[in-house]
Structures are given as C-alpha cells and as structure tokens.
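User: Show me a protein chain along with its predicted structure.
Assistant: Here is one chain, sequence first, then structure tokens.
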Amino acid sequence: MAEPEVEQCDVAVIGGGPGGSTAATLLARRGYKVIALEKAHHPRFHIGESLLPMNLPVFERLGVLDKVRELGVFKRGADFETDDACGYNVYAFSRAIGQSPPHAYQVWRQDFDRMLYQHARECGAEAREGHEVLRVEQRGPRESRLEVRTDDGRDYAIRARYVVDASGRDALLATKMKLRRRSRQHQSAAIFGHFRGADRRDGEDAGNVSIYRFAQGWMWMIPLPDGVMSVGAVCRPDYLKQRRGRTLEFLFDTLKLNPALWQRVERAGLIGDEVHVTGNYSYDATRMGGPGWVLVGDAFAFLDPVFSSGVYLAMDGAERAAELVDAALREPRCERALLRRLERRQRKGMARFAFFIHRFNSPVMRQMLRSPRNTWQLEQAVISMLAGDLFDTPKVLWRLQLFKLVHAIGVLHDWRRSRAERRYRLAQARASLGRE
C-alpha cells in the first residue's frame, strides 16, 4: 500500500471555529505557511450565539468588526429577573468600570463561524473543510505529523513545525495525551430550540440576553437576527434524563417552570419543531501545551455557558497563542516560559468566571444578582466580569476579590440564620410534644 502524500507547513491548526480561525488568521498574516483543517463544512450548526463586549477589540484587530456588526443583533447588556414592577434588572455593559466596550452582539453561529474561517482564508491561511485529523504524532519539538482524511475518502499527511489544537469539545490532543479531566464541581446538560415570535424586551433592552432560574438550573433567551429567539435550559443531567424520548414536550414542560419566561414564549412557534440536546460537562486539560503544540478554547477547557464566555475565551486565547507560536518558532528557548505564563493567565481568568458559575443557583448569589448593590462599585465589577474584562484590569480584579469576601459573609450569615430557624422549629416541636 502506497504511503500517503506528505505536505509541509509551519503551523497546522485543527478546527475551524472562532479559536482556530483567529489563530490561523494571525499566523498567516505573520508570514507563516498555515494549514487549517475543519472536519465539517461551513456553515455548520453550533450553539453559543451570545458574544461579549471584550470580543469587539479582538474583532477590530482581526479586521472583521464591520462584518460582525452586519451579522449581529445589538446587545447592550444582560438581564436577570427580579420581583419589582419591571420584572428584570439590566446589567448594562456601559456601566462597566474597565475599558470594555459598552455593547456586544448576538449572532447565528453558523454564519459567524463561516465568516471567520473565510477571513482566515482571505488572510493567507490554507483553510480546508471536510478534512478530519485522525492522528497526531509528535516526532520532535518542531516536527509533528498529522494524518488527515477528507470526506471523499482521500488520506494524506501533514508535517508541521507547530500544532494549534482548536478542535473544540473533541479536544483531540488532550484526549490523545490523556490530559482531559472532568470538573467534579460542575456538570450540566442543555435542551434548547429556536423560536419565531417570542416577546423581546422593550426599547433599548430588545437585544438583551435574558437569564432566568428554575429549580433544576437556569434558562436563557437570546435575541437573534430575523426575529428569532434562542431559548433553552441548562440543567442537571439527571433531570434531562427524565425526558425518555419526549424531547419536544419536555422542552416545553421545562420552559413552563419559569412563568416569566413562558409568558414571553407561549405564543411563539418553534422553528421546524427542532429541539437540540447537548451535554455541558465542564472539563479542562492538565496542561495547555508543550514543545511544538498548544491548546486553544474548548480544546483546553470548557465552562458552563451561563455567562457566554466560550467564544471570547477561545478567541482571546487563540490571539495570545498565535503570539506564543510566533515567538517559539523564532526563539525556541523562550517557549516554555511563554507557555507557562499564558496558561497561568488563562486559568486565572477561567477561575474568575467559574466562581460565579459554580454558585450561580445558590441562594446568596441569586439574591445578590436579583437585588444588586453598588457599594465599593461591586455591581459594576460584576458587569465588567459579564463583559469579559477579567484578565488585565486591576480595579476590576480586586473588586471581584472583594465580591468573593462579601459573598462568603453572606453565606455565613445565611447558614447562621438557617441554623437558628432549625433550632427554633425544633424547640417549638418539643414544646408541642410536652403540651401533649
């Protein structure tokens, strides 16, 4: 049997999502021969339609901000339900205390991803679709062999000086190297669909992403172009298992569990009666990279989507990974230190998101988000976190630390109150028994 043909490149990028396209674009612009490989064909369906304000500077540096603006729905903030007359509280991005932009966009991911991949192609990357990476063999710090199969059955190989794994939740290299580990703190699943005719917020709030809670988790409403609304629920996996083949009915039954959300959806029509179900198991890799390879976006770690962090973390990480690859190929001695610094930065940013994610449905966090107080600008720091500004702005970061302390005090107070109530009920029960 003949040996498959072998192509040569400087950088092979696995995956054609936002992270892979960003890395491919920036490295091609720096003059490297880049081969980008996407196993599917664009456009392909993907969840994660809500972008963050901190995405916008990345779009500007890539040169695609105008294209995103054409594709997207303007989003001024995120809103959470409250008990007041309005029914919701808006965390407006314009109130952030860092340098994050005052708005963001929501997009159809299939259109957004296709635009970014095409842009990488226009910038000089050889962006291929229907090309699946089957195996990666590292033969040296500057020599990796990728075995690829096209969707028409042709096999070939690529010899690359560097590999950027942006394969998403396939996590190709992390799985192959047995680096992937599930989070013990957080596991969830999602059920969702796209509706036409759901009620949007009034006026300037019409593009907000709306977040609701229910006993089993939380729900979202994301306005999309052409009058479409993405609506779904993130819940515990054992709850979702109860659907037992009743996926369509189960979605509607779940949405009815929050009356405020259901009021906005009950007259809308589910497009194509199509319901999507996916696992949202949080995970990370024990290492972000090594000599000649680096993990980007979901190929490195995946968090619960409650704060819409996925696209931003992937693109920000890819932008910095591109700088790392460029430096490592020019000066290999600096690679280890740069990789260690990048991984430390990414993990710290994800940990700041994770603090809120892991406590999102707790009574204390629920109360703090429903009835925010801006003492010491803590509410504005949370807005900055929601905008994605959680890496480099000291006045945001120390306030998020202070928020943790305030939250801990609230948890302690809640625990003491619960204990006192239990003692009171027990004393009442004993007194009642004594009277009998």
